[in-house]
Amino acid sequence: MQMKEIKFSRNYKKLYNQKKAVLIERFIVYPEELSKEFLDFDTDGGKYKLNMKQCYLVLYFIGDKKIPFTTLRKYNEENTSKYFNSVGEIFKIVVEKEKTKEKTNEKKEQYEPKN
Asked: Is this prediction's pTM over 0.85?
């Protein structure tokens, strides 16, 4: 059986260059239910924008250097099937090359960190 992957768009500080991680917990939340401190940590100070009206899966991992980290993933069928019943499984951490994001005209209510 091939190891599952957890993909990140960039090498976030919270990953500490770890290569693999065990999923130890997952739960479903709306961003407004999370503290400002958690959102700042998980989104790297707001570099990753969240839709405040969207449900998310909070995934809690312990990396191969024994350093824990979290990540938020949209709560949808694909992510639920990939992660929800995978507690205890090892995931390969994949950092994708940063891509230029096209701006859309769609406006979303987004989390913006407050200084």
From this structure: no
For the chain, the first-to-last Cα distance in angstroms comes to 46
Q: Is 102 contained in some domain? A: no
Helices (H), the chain: 36-42, 77-83
Look up the domain containing 55 and give its range.
4-95
Q: Does residue 57 contact residue 84 with C-beta atoms inside 8 Å?
A: yes
Nearest residue to 69 (alpha-carbon basis) of 113, 109, 12: 12
Structure tokens at 13: 């500080």
Residue 104 lies in a domain: no
Q: How many domains does one find in the chain?
A: 1
Residue 84 carries which DSSP code?
T
Rg (the chain; Cα; Å): 14
Ramachandran region, residue 88 (left: φ > 0; alpha: ψ -120 to 50; beta: rest): left
18: pLDDT strictly greater than 60: yes
Q: Is residue 115 part of a domain?
A: no
Placement of tokens 């239910």 in the chain = 33
Residue 43 domain flag? yes
